[in-house]
């Protein structure tokens, strides 16, 4: 039975893990808290960057000799393999830790087994404390390992009646400066930002992170099937961040720099590119989390393909009555096939409302 102290320590580890969002790919985000034999916090840490020390190592270094006989609270099962760093299970043993509490088991077959190694050495090991919170914080990496594709977060900004622009196509600005600043936080936490050809034509977006010190710039991806939207000199081709322009295998793209062109097969049905191929290509480049910022057509294609893992909508207290809707054709023709969502958070951002939701498990009768 977990104690209040156990819950507090693991909650702190979950909070620490979130500090690594956007900078650890292709590794997971992990937090660790070490308490000494008396239960007092002796050290804490989080995985800061791929190739750097893991969370347990940072926490053990901070704890020093106080770790001996203590407890380690870790959001992910301590790894059991040697990669660019040594196995964390062995590091915990060497430090004299007597108890390990971890939230989520490691699904990576190359790294799992740390819990068994610790138990075999006589360490008390417990799993599952605050597992839901730890899973949510590490959703991108877990999706990547379990499904072999990046985690997709679709973000949109709309009026209260669901419009992303007015009838004359003007859209700047529907939401507040506070909401737009929050979008840059989402970009900073993502490995890649994706928009479609319509957004590229209408807005000439730069897609970089602004206003966040030390942020790692995400890969910028434009889905430009026929290679007609991105022109030489487009802002997305500047040197702020790396860029890929995804085009069809047969599209003429000689006007684009060769190193930014990603050729993909067209979708088997309908317009656009094969989204499975796009996500596989990004996965192969170590992209764990994709922020989908495209307009209604691209968003509709991702929803239709079942490739949206989370939705973040910024709703402004504004009415337009006409103009494009946030979501285009998603292949949903009747209410019984509606994609139901579970709302996980609602937050005021300036005058706007940010709603976070995830696809709900299928309900009987739907």
TrEMBL record:
Annotated Zn(2+) binding sites: 54, 79, 88
Co-factor remark: Binds 1 zinc ion.
Naturally occurring in which organism (per UniProt): Streptomyces arboris
GO molecular function: 5-amino-6-(5-phosphoribosylamino)uracil reductase activity; diaminohydroxyphosphoribosylaminopyrimidine deaminase activity; NADP binding; zinc ion binding
CDD domains: Riboflavin_deaminase-reductase
Cofactors (names): Zn(2+)
Pathway: Cofactor biosynthesis; riboflavin biosynthesis; 5-amino-6-(D-ribitylamino)uracil from GTP: step 2/4; Cofactor biosynthesis; riboflavin biosynthesis; 5-amino-6-(D-ribitylamino)uracil from GTP: step 3/4
Keywords: Hydrolase, Metal-binding, Multifunctional enzyme, NADP, Oxidoreductase, Riboflavin biosynthesis, Zinc
Record-given protein name: Riboflavin biosynthesis protein RibD
UniProt-annotated binding residues for NADP(+): 157, 173, 199, 225, 295-301
Active-site feature positions: 56
Top-level taxon of the source organism: Bacteria
